[in-house]
Amino acid sequence: MERAKILVCVTGGIAAYKAPGIIRRLREANHEVRVAATKAAFRFIPEETLSIAAGGKVHTDETWWEESGRVEHVSLARWADLVLVAPATADSMARAAIGLGDDLVSSTVLAGAKKVLWASAMNPEMWANPATRRNVETLKGWGHRFVGPAEGLMASAEELPGFGRLAEEADIAAAAEEALGDTAR
Predict the structure, then answer these.
(1) What is the spatial distance between Cα 53 and Cα 22, in angstroms, rounded to a whole number?
(2) Rg (CA), the chain
(3) 10 Å Cβ neighbour count for 180?
(4) Domain residues of the chain, as ranges?
(5) Upstream peptide bond of 46 is cis (omega within 30 degrees of 0)
(6) Contact by Cβ (8 Å): 20, 47
(7) pLDDT tens-digit series, residues 98-107
(8) What is this structure's pTM?
(9) Do residues 26 and 176 touch, judged by C-beta distance below 8 A?
């Protein structure tokens, strides 16, 4: 696979603690990786940890405007060959599906990202909820891809029937490679 530009968007779910491992795998595959994160993501993982994993700054709502006066979400959407939302919460998917763009991550997804891959992670009942299912179908209709969620023990130590757990890092990296290799949007 050729070197690609991947924007990893980290949202506010407990699975955010796995984001550095995903970033590391993508960098080891020789991709150029940048990171954007929501305010809610920082309730689960420090900005510094994401910055170290990415080897550069984390794009946030506080850095939304570039020094040149350009808006960062448009620049990031144009820069990235792939926007990977990991973890993708029910909230982040709902915001995209209804066109909300009031933070850097949601605005970047809406600003014409070439390809979007959602690595879903949430409580199994949330994943099975009709509203979430509708939002997933809307995003798929726009050409967005999904990896996971997986079945298994949740961060809350609940083993609920159904899917909700973030897919394994290797599976997410493989799905990113597959999305990058697909010439169709």
Answers:
(1) 9
(2) 15
(3) 20
(4) 5-181
(5) no
(6) no
(7) 999 889 999 9
(8) 0.92
(9) yes
What 3-state class would DSSP assign to 145? strand
Q: How far apart are CA 95 and CA 48, in angstroms?
A: 26
Residue 1 confidence (pLDDT): 55
Q: pLDDT band for 2, please (50, 70, 90 cuts).
A: confident
Say which DSSP state 65 is in: B
pLDDT tens profile 51-81: 999 999 999 988 776 677 778 888 899 999 9
The Cα–Cα gap between 27 and 93 comes to 25
Topology of the domain comprising 5-181? Rossmann fold (3.40.50)
- Single-letter amino acid code for the residue at 41: A
Block residue for tokens 């910055």: 51
CA-to-CA separations, 153 to 91, 119, 147, 167, in angstroms, rounded:
21, 17, 17, 12
Structure tokens at 143: 């050409």
CB 79 within 8 A of CB 71: no
Contact predicate 47/60, CB 8 Å = yes
Distance CA 85, CA 61 (A): 16
**Can you give the pLDDT at residue 184?**
42
| Burial class, 130, CB count within 10 angstroms (exposed 0-12 / middle 13-18 / buried 19+) | exposed
